Amino acid sequence: MLSILALVVLILLSAMISGSEIAFFSYNPSDIGELEQADDPRSKKLYKLIKAPRTLLATILITNNFVNITIVVLSEIFIRQVLPSTLTEGWASGLIEKLHLQMGVVPVAEGINFAITVVGVTFLLVLMGEVMPKVLAYADYKQFSRRMTPFLAFLDKFLHPLSAGLVGLGAFIERKLSDKSSHDNMTKEEIDKAIDLTTNASNSTKDEIGILKSIVKFGDVTVNEIMQPRIEIKAVDVEMSFDELLGIIKETGFSRLPVYEGELDNIKGIFYVKDLIGHFHEKGDFEWQKLVRTEVKYVPDSKLISDLLKEFKEERIHMAIVIDEYGATDGLITLEDIMEEVVGEIKDEFDDDDEIEYKRVNDHTYVFDGKTLISDFCKVIHIDGDFFDDVRDEADSLAGMILEDLKDFPKKGTEIEIKGFKFKVLTMGKRRIGEIRIILPNGDENVPSER
Question: Does CATH number 3.30.465.10 belong to domain 358-439?
Fold first, then answer.
C-alpha cells in the first residue's frame, strides 16, 4: 500500500512538472508584457520565472528526471512484491518448454520481470505523466502556470546551484558550437545584403525591395515604434455638441475617433463615423453619444505588431489605444499603421499627396518640424530608413533624436552634428522643439536665411 501511494503521488508530481513545461513556455510577448505590468505578488513571481527561461527549463528537467527515476525504482520494488520470483520462474519454465529455448529459467524470469516493469512504467509515465498533463496545461496555460508558480518558485531556489551550473555548461557548449557554425547563421543585416544583391541582379523596384526588407524586420517591431503618439491623437470630448463633432469629422477625415471624458486618459469608447448614416439630418442637440461603441482595446507599447495584427484579425477591429506602464494613454495604433510598416504608406482618397511637411532651402538644406518621424525624413532625402538606428535609441522623431543626443532640452539656435548631418534648432517652445534646419553631409553651410 505504501508503494502504491508513493507511486500515485510521484505520478501526480510528474504530471504537474510536465504540464508546467508547456504552460510556462506558452506565454507570448504580449502575455509577458501584461505580466510585467501586473501588481499582484503571484504575477510578479511568474514574470520572474519566465524572464529566466533557461534556468526555469533546467529546474523543470532536473525535477522531472529525479521524479521519473524514483518512479522506476519504486515500480521495480512494487512489481517484485506483486510478482514473486516463484511466479515469474513458473512463467519462464512454461515459455522455455513451449519455445524450446536453450536458456536457464532465472535469466528468462528476470527478462519477463524487466519487460513488465518497462512496459507498465513507460505506459504510465507517457500517458499520465506526459501526454495528458501537457494537453490539459496547453488548453489553459495561464491558469495552470499561476497555480504552479509557488511550487516552481520554491524549486527554483532549492535547485538553483544545480540548475545554474547546468545553464552555465549549456551556454559554454552553445558558444563553442555557435563559433564553429556561425557561418551558417545569417543576421538580419546579412539578409538585407542578400536582398540587395539579389534584387540588383533582377528588375525589382525600390518598393519591392522595401517590402522584402520590411518583412524581415516585421517580427521585431513593437507598437511603440509605429504608433501615433499622444500629442498627435485626434479625439473628441464626450461633452461636445453634434455640430462640433461634425466639424472634427470633416477636418480630420478619419473613419474612427476615440471618445474621452475630461482628459485623454479616460477613454469612454470609439465613435464610428459610419454610424452617422441616417442621422445627418439631425439638429445640433442630437445626442450622438448614444452611438459611441464602448468596446475599447488597450495594448501595452511593448507589444509586437505581429501579435497585435493577429488580435486585430481575430477580434475584427481596426484600432487600439496604447497605454504606458502607469495605464495612461500613450498613443494610438490602427490596422493601417501596421500594414504600412510592410507595404509602405497607404493613401486613400482623403489623404493629401504630400503629408510630410517640410521646406527645401536648397539642394543640401531642409527645414522640418521637430515632430517629423525619422523614417519620413529618410524618405524625403532618399536614404535607408534604418540609417539612424544606431544613434536614435528609442526616439521616433527628429526632435526625439536631438534630445537623445543632447540628454537635455536645447535652446533656440542650438547646433549639433549627427552622423554627418548638421541640425540647428530654429524654434523652441516651453517643452517642445519646433522647426529644425538640417544640412546634409557635404552641404554648403552658408545657406540663405530660413525665415
Answer: yes
